[in-house]
Amino acid sequence: MSDQHLDLIERQVTDFIRRIILTEKQFNNLDRSAYILLRQLATYGPAGVKTLAQDLHLDISTVSRQASVLVDKKYVEKIPNPDDRRSYYYQITSIGSLELEENKQRRYDRLSGILEDWSEEDKERFGLLLKKYNETVNEKLDL
Amino acid sequence: MSDQHLDLIERQVTDFIRRIILTEKQFNNLDRSAYILLRQLATYGPAGVKTLAQDLHLDISTVSRQASVLVDKKYVEKIPNPDDRRSYYYQITSIGSLELEENKQRRYDRLSGILEDWSEEDKERFGLLLKKYNETVNEKLDL
DNA sequence: TTATATAGTTGTATAATACAACTATATTGG
DNA sequence: CCAATATAGTTGTATTATACAACTATATAA
Predict the structure, then answer these.
(1) d(CA A114, CA B25)
(2) Domain count of chain A?
(3) Ranges for the HTH marR-type domain (chains A, B) (predicted)?
């Protein structure tokens, strides 16, 4: 069982996460949670808090608060659902899209600087393995 | 510039981190910060809060609090430095080592379950690329 | 048409963090 | 050699991201 590769991954993952979370505050305008929520709305279109909470693996109350922050900043619009007056959907605004793109670009630039000496092959592999990991986790959990 | 691989990595990294942070609470006894601090002491030996803070990229006050939690739980011992009465060093106890090992094993087991269908080659690559990323970041920041 | 289920919000609590103010001890320069 | 400064650590306060529980308003079902 004592798998050498697991040991390496386990160790590197904690360092990886720690470092990214601590440094990204200095480089990005939008904080992590806002960025992820905005990206979700931009990628998959308008949705209500329940759906968003499910998709983002968060509590509804958490998303509710995060969404109202974005509303206050005019990054998203809160639109009542005409078919169900209990619910709403949040739609990204043009200001929100702009802000998202700026942040995305800043993240790319930073990543690009870090990976500048990597071969294209290693960059591709890294992205694919992260994707594979995420997909594997999703499969295992959605039983 | 618009590098397809960067795009993939950027996207996958946020998902990766989000998912790990949210799920690990359910599986581990020690929380993330305690685990990392304990692992640091186990790996590199006794140290004071200043050194620990530098090595872990945290504020001294943060480490000070985290260390006192570990002291309360008897996982580490706070030993005065005989050569400098301002300072201390924290040393992991046998209870602490045991707790660390149990947690490490639980993390391995979980990771092992997730990666059970991966080839040895992919596991190795993934660990090595994470390591390479971490090393690259360290080089770039320690100018 | 009442009982129950659902979408969302808000109150409260917790964890991890940083910064600033502070205490106690060491080191250094006139 | 002692006054000024630097250093190790702690504690007060604030922020951010999160969850759970209680609640409101609306919809659906028995």
Answers:
(1) 30
(2) 1
(3) 1-135
Whether any strand D atom is under 7 angstroms from the Cβ of B78: the reply reads yes
CB atoms under 10 Å from CB of B48, counted, come to 20
Scan for tokens 């799920």, then name that residue. B23
pTM of the model: 0.91
Q: The tokens 């946020």 sit on which residue?
A: B14
Tens digit of pLDDT for each residue in A94-129? 999 999 999 999 999 999 999 999 999 999 999 999
Q: Which residues of B touch A57 (CB under 8 A)?
A: 18-19, 22
In a domain, B114, yes or no: yes
pLDDT digit string, tens, across residues B46-102: 999 999 999 999 999 999 999 999 999 999 999 999 999 999 999 999 999 999 999
Question: Would you say how long chain B is, in residues?
Answer: 143
Q: Which residue in B103, B71, B11 sits closest to A127, CA to CA?
A: B11
Does residue B12 carry a pLDDT above 90? yes
Q: What is the CATH number of the domain that holds B110?
A: 1.10.10.10
Distance of CA A61 to the CA centre of its chain: 18
Distance B31 CA to C2 C1' (A): 48
Check if A27 contacts B (Cβ < 8 Å): no
Q: Which residues of B touch A62 (CB under 8 A)?
A: none
Distances (CA, A) of B2 to A22, A24, A43, B6: 26, 20, 18, 8
Q: Is residue B71 part of a domain?
A: yes
- Is residue A13 assigned to a domain? no
Q: Write out chain A residues lying below 8 Å of B23, CB-based.
A: 137, 141
Q: Could you give the residue ranges of the DSSP H alpha helices within A30-119?
A: 32-44, 49-56, 60-72, 94-114
Select the residue of B6, B35, B39 nearest A111 (Cβ to Cβ): B6
- What residue numbers bound the domain in which A107 lies? 31-141
